[in-house]
Amino acid sequence: MKGISSNDSLPPSRERPPVVVIAAAAVAAGLFLLPLLGLLIRTPWTRLGSVLTSDTVLDALRISLLSSVTAAVLACILGVPLAWMLSRYEFRGRQALRSIVTLPMVLPPVVGGVALGSVFGRGGFVGGPIESGSGLLLQFSFWGIVLANTFVAMPFLVITTEAALNAVNRRYEAAAATLGASGPRVFTTITIPSIWPGLKAGIVLAWARAFGEFGATLTFNGSLQGRTQTMPLAVFVELSDDTDAAIAIAIIMVAVSLIVLTSLRDRWWNPS
Amino acid sequence: MTNPSEHGLSAQFEATIDNFTVELALSIRAGETIALLGPNGSGKSTTLSVLAGLIRPTAGEIRLGDVVLNNVTADVHVPTAARNIGILFQDYLLFDHLTVRDNIAYGPRAKGASRSVAREKVTTWLEKLDLDSLADLKPNQLSGGQAQRVALARALAGDPAMLCLDEPFAATDVTTTVALRRTLKAHLEQFDQPTLLITHDPADAFLLADRIVIIENGRAVQSGTAQELGRNPNSRFVADMAGSNLLSGHYRDGAVTVEGFDEPIRASSELEDGPVFVTISPSAIALHTEPPSGSPRNTWETRIEGLQPLGRFVRVHLGQPLPLLADITPASVETMGLVPQKRVWAAVKATEISLTAA
Questions:
Q1: Contacts B83 to A, Cβ<8 Å
Q2: Do B110 and A193 make contact, defined as CB atoms within 8 angstroms?
Q3: The CATH number of the domain where A87 resides is what?
Q4: Structural domain of B238
Q5: B contacts of A186 (beta carbons < 8 Å)
Q6: What are the residues whose beta carbons fall under 8 Å from the beta carbon of A215, sequence distance 6 or more?
Q7: Surface of A (141-180) touching B: CB under 8 A
Q8: Fewest CB atoms within 10 A around its CB: which of A128, A267, B88, B118?
Q9: Tell me, what's the pLDDT at B1?
Q10: Are B233 and B251 in the same domain?
Q11: CA pair distance B189, A210, nearest whole angstrom
């Protein structure tokens, strides 16, 4: 039974929405669709093959895919414990920590890149000692991209995971503990399955954010083809050089994003 | 009382949650079932949380067998996972993402049993609780009664050193309750460790427990067998909580035959013929000094064995052939001149007699 007297939500209406709503929604949908259409119209279909197989694009694609996946994994490994702390423990500065976590979401990525440089760059108070000790410089390297990507992407994962953790009925965890399950066992066998939909959404969002990252990566790592030039950076560089190539690369990014999102959609976004 | 070093639970603790303090002493022998009977908010769930190790007591000691689970002065607090107390939760808390089989295997696996040992235990418990055909279903495909049987199997499959039943019939309908109570009773009889039954329903306590502890405002007010509590309540609260008359008999054609009582007791019920429990509220029994005439009620002659004033009413203990309790106003006691050994006629309307299938 659906109705206002029960706890069920009302079903979607079959009536026509108000004209104002239709108009605004149409403009909004157009805002998403038209740029995509524009890209497709201007795509140099005949040159697409040669652009795709050029060293610039292959290098950028490899660097982008590797760095964004690595960043998503890293965001997961570091972000889930952080979300766990924010959700489950009462401590001084919890609210402040939560604000700091969300800071990269509102901070202009360029500022993030400058900030990362001042810490992990040459002469930075973390990057300097690392470089003099091991000879490894994060800045201007693949790991620099991963660092910048993780910096901008992790907040998405932490926020969705914390929300999912807050929604878990902790009595199930208690029930598992009464059956003899240790803390880590409860976490892996009960908590993770319960938060899986939220965690999955967080991982996808974090990956998508990392894949599209531009400002922080450019500022922190520069744009060296074959070393630090990711797909978005390649688009930007080609734009002043060869517009057709830039659009071809952009189309590839759209395709990769769509393939990833739709292939995960059925398995991940729809609860069985 | 038992020696605390023997197997069983001996708990004496104080715990505070949300400014509400529970102060309780409980001792349950191995194989014995104790009911903790009280209304909502009397401290029953706090007690369960303390035993499960989810809340730390502020004072006292809890021992289970040879193991000290809590000792506040020695700062001992065994974590939940190491307590080995199986709990049947009132809303079952079955793991929705696991099959019935994996739910039952969870305890043995968590306690370190190998896959093959766990599989054996699962097979045993599936069979014991008649769950074979449901083994590969998920909890959301089960009926309430089936879910409870799975929950019981899951609680017992890990060989707990103690079992707690938290309001076991709170979430089941009447017909399921009858069947489940029978199942539960059979398994409690086989279970050789202490069992704590937490309930607000006197019928559960009477039917499943060996002894009853009545809890009010976080304190045990009286304990004893159902009969002791009914016969000798130390307060109105206990009298109300444990005052019901319970008989077992056989129902047939609108009447119940009770052992030791020749006349069938008329009762209105839609039950099928078969064994039943008869409950009669003490306030539903009327007493007369002469045989009541022309009454459609169940009447019988008996003697008064004792009188116990309980404030607004006097609890009258009736003798053979039906040793029941009747609550009468002090005014009636005086008018009728009721004293021990006096001969009286007891009467109960058929509609005041409630039956449940046994």
A1: 178
A2: no
A3: 1.10.3720.10
A4: 8-242
A5: 81
A6: A108, A109, A110, A112, A113
A7: 171-172, 174-180
A8: A267
A9: 43
A10: no
A11: 61
**CA distance linking residue B62 with residue B27, whole number of Å:** 10
Backbone angles phi, psi at B302, to 5 degrees: -155, -175
Average pLDDT across each block of 10 residues of chain A; the chain has 272 residues. List them in order. 60 89 96 92 88 89 95 96 95 94 92 93 87 86 94 95 94 96 95 93 92 92 90 91 89 88 64 44
Residue B295 covered by a domain: yes
Predicted local confidence at residue A235, as pLDDT: 92
Q: With beta carbons less than 8 A apart as the criterion, state whether B193 and B16 touch.
A: no
What's the pLDDT score for residue A160? 94
Collapsing DSSP to helix, strand or coil, B199 comes out as: strand
pLDDT at B178: 74
In whole angstroms, give the CA distance from residue A259 to residue B53: 49
Tokens of B350: 């058929």
pTM, full prediction: 0.79
* Angle, CA of B232, B298 and B226, to the nearest 5°: 25
How many structural domains does chain A have?
1
Two structure tokens written together for A252: 């590839």
3-class secondary-structure state, position A271: coil
Residues of chain B with pLDDT under 50: 1-5
- B85 touching A (Cβ < 8 Å): yes
DSSP lists the bridge partners of residue B165 as: B88, B197
| Residue B3 forms part of a structural domain | no
> What is the arrangement of strands in the sheet containing B261-266, beginning at the earlier edge strand?
B261-266, B255-258, B245-252, B274-280, B353-357
Alpha helix stretches (DSSP H) within chain B: 44-52, 100-110, 115-128, 144-157, 174-190, 202-208, 226-231, 236-242, 330-336
| Percentages (nearest 5) of helix, strand, coil residues in chain B | 30, 35, 35
Predicted local confidence at residue A5, as pLDDT? 62
In this structure, what token pair is assigned to residue B298?
A: 């169940």
Picking from B357, B276, B267, B280, the residue whose alpha carbon sits closest to that of residue B323 is B280
pLDDT of residue A213: 93
